[in-house]
Amino acid sequence: RANNTQRHSFGHGIHIDMEWSGDDVIGKVECPHPPYPAKFSEIKIENKAHETAFKLLNSENAFVRFSAVGMLTALGTDVVEEIVERLLATDHIGYHRDAMEVLHTLMVSKQITSAHAKLLARLLACKVAETRTVIADDFGVFVIYGAETELSAALKDADASVRRYAITALLNLGRASNDKALYSAADLLSGVKRIAESDPSEDVRRVAV
């Protein structure tokens, strides 16, 4: 649970699935993800080491991307802002999974802290619902304070999974330390009660209850 592997780990098996050749004893298997390279809005990178790693992360070759994940992780939190910018600039699901692996490694090693909360909170507005869901959950799992306002806004996300994990994140943060959380337990319970009574998703209502 501490490293989020039970629910939202982006393991290397996902990369292999993305590069599946289509040959199988059962029949042809179509890759569900768009092909690389991912498409971006114009993003300039001044740091040459960062630029090299990000170019590799956009490679068609899965093993090259493995290397890029390691390179970016080794660069530490200096690349967090650039990762966020790139995730906001594309809806390529494979790229999101690769880049989120870097962020999760930095969270597990406690390099990403509450000081990065506002930066990470921007991902709650990205185009990919899976990433919005995962980052919402991460705030609670890794106890990252400072994005409670954005998590509260995520309770109205169009995707039920995002709403579900925004609820649990807010409750986990409130439970961990009322002194650091931006909202009191009473405020949180009031909001959760409203969701339990009115959310269109049964799954979200059950979690709220």
Q: How is this structure best described in words?
A:
With 209 residues, the chain is mostly helical. Helices cover 59% and strands 0% of the residues. The chain contains twelve helices and no strands. It has helices spanning 5-8, 12-18, 48-57, 62-75, 80-88, 93-108, 117-121, 129-141, 148-154, 160-176, 185-198, 202-208. The longest helix has 17 residues, at 160-176. The radius of gyration is 18 Å and the shape is globular. The two termini are 22 Å apart. The model is unreliable at 1-18 (pLDDT under 50).
Q: Based on DSSP secondary structure assignment, what is the total number of beta strands?
A: 0
Number of helices: 12
Question: Whole-number average pLDDT?
Answer: 81
Largest sheet, if any?
none
- Bin the strand percentage: under 5%
End-to-end separation in angstroms reads 22 Å
What is the share of helical residues? 55-70%
Radius of gyration: 18 Å
